[in-house]
Amino acid sequence: MKRASLNEAALLAKVAKGDQQAFKQLYDQYFPMVFSFGLRILHLRALAQETAQEVMLAFWQKGSELADIRNLEAFLKTLTKRKTIDAWRRLQLARRAEAALKVDWNEADISTDTHLFIKDVKHILEKGIDRLPPRQRSVYRLCQQQGLKYDEAARRLNISPATVHTHMKLALKSLRSYLQHHADLTVLFIIFQIN
Known about the structure:
By secondary structure, the chain is mainly alpha-helical. The chain is about 80% helix and about 0% strand. The protein folds into two domains: about 5-95, RNA polymerase sigma factor, region 2, helix turn helix motif (Rna Polymerase Sigma Factor, Chain: A, Orthogonal Bundle), CATH 1.10.1740; about 105-195, Arc Repressor Mutant, subunit A. The protein has helices at about 5-15, 20-40, 45-60, 70-100, 110-130, 135-145, 150-155, 160-180, 185-195. The longest helix is centred in the middle third of the chain and has 31 residues, at about 70-100.
């Protein structure tokens, strides 16, 4: 097993004491490896970037525990795998939920009660979307409702894909919070769409 070099061990000891310059040196050295791994798994640059930043933040937050690390590369690889798996799971869950909400209903095949129920749920979702700040609302409508990729939405809105990702993340968080107040309808709606 690879052990930390003397220079790396000295940097770790400094980071453990809160030395930001030493942290920056290790950040610059290891961030590309962490980002590259995330990108291979997630296939989304913005999400891989965000995950890599979470890894490096978690590394920094270890504080005095960093002095005990003997193999920094192995430590960061383990942390990266955990954070990337978490991000991948959240992404898959979001995609499944979105797919469930996109299912087209054949209105001729459903009862009037079900039709009214679906209409109510869609109305609740639309109210939630309308409550979003203008930029988040635009990003949500372009990416989630029109199916544009982040880079396509970024070009249309004249912003960066990373900014689109940030707005989408905030929009989804706001919508989840809003829909929790109507959880009974939302859960039933998803169940009906999956069956």
